[in-house]
């Protein structure tokens, strides 16, 4: 059996759709992978780049899966239901082995991991839609241990502190390593500048909430107007009765990002600011949202209360919309290289400064409680990408804030002696 991919274009209920679909070819018979294609339509029809990325990853995983399931499953177009967390983990391992054995630099560990997360997201969607997949929604068994098994050694531009702190602080551009804003976090001025440059205020308030939580764009877009289940307590600030109890500084938010579920804390004062800024806009957009979802097929209509952040047209904000809005906002600002995702660095660094003393930060003190809390909040699993990295940035931020650096280097007398005599 072969997996084929193609792009289709069509109009449905006065809307244009443009997305990839996957087919299973068995001899002369071609079968649409219907549920897979429904997912691709829902998740990716707004971006040709996204639909190609998602479809290619699913296609690659399915091709691997066909080689590793029993004969009966291979003959069925529902073969993808036989996938397990172990298959997803082992697929990543084969990609790493192939790259390392050929002594290649690409794809990076991060790229392989991110692509696997997209496949995991599909299976989470399938599980939520009651499809009998064997992949477990909340399991961590799908994750490959890159630290242990990957032999890729491209640690350029590292900050090293001890034997367990290999941290890449650079970003690759055209195969060259460039520093990421000289290891600093967004300043108050940069934050205000970006937020005031958005053409739609919804992106500014989402940026505010991202700063307060460390949420990824994916998690921000899931924020409800009125929550259900573990989020049933979430309401607009004025309806949550938080003002009467000043001791409550945060509330829980259950979110799924990159295929993993976690519960993080939302700053109450930040939520109050978000609601005061955005609610006057929301109710007008809600009316448009009601009309928008009426045009969707019944099985694709979200609950009216499940979406809080809406565009001017009443459409749900997506990570792609955040990216596009930030791109256009930055074009109006001269020499501005920050991105929306920098909010995570801002949150994590300030978390370290808030929960450790200056002495602990400057002496690279390890606090397991702080490290564990930070990893859970921002959804990282690796100490190298959380505690030690942000400890370094926090140390630098404190040094700059306290004006600790003396750029004069030597004494006045030294320079006096070097004067050239005429």
Low-confidence stretches: 153-181
Tell me the span between the first and last alpha carbons.
87 Å
Structural class, please? alpha+beta
| Tally of individual domains | 3
Q: Portion of residues in helices?
A: 40-55%
How large, in whole angstroms, is the Cα Rg?
25 Å
Beta percentage is 5-15%
Number of strands: 9
Instruction: Give the spatial strand order of the biggest sheet.
Output: 1-2-3
Which sheet architecture does the biggest sheet show?
3 strands, antiparallel
| Mean pLDDT across all amino acids | 84
Shape: globular
What do these coordinates show?
The protein has 422 residues and is an alpha+beta fold. The protein has 3 domains: 2-149, no CATH class; 166-177 and 341-401, no CATH class; 188-331, hpI Integrase, Chain A (Orthogonal Bundle), CATH 1.10.443. The chain is 46% helix and 13% strand. It is built from 16 helices and 9 strands. It has helices at 34-44, 48-66, 71-74, 85-101, 109-128, 146-149, 188-197, 201-213, 217-221, 268-294, 319-331, 342-355, 358-362, 368-378, 387-401, 412-417, and strands at 2-12, 15-26, 29-32, 158-159, 167-168, 170-173, 176-179, 250-257, 260-267. Strands 1-2-3 form a 3-stranded antiparallel sheet. Strands 4-5 form a two-stranded antiparallel sheet. The protein has a two-stranded antiparallel ribbon with strand order 6-7. A hairpin with a 2-residue loop joins strand 6 and strand 7 (176-179). Helix 1 (34-44) packs antiparallel against helix 2 (48-66), helix 4 (85-101) packs antiparallel against helix 5 and helix 12 crosses helix 15. The protein is globular and about 90 Å long. Residues 153-181 have low confidence and may be disordered.
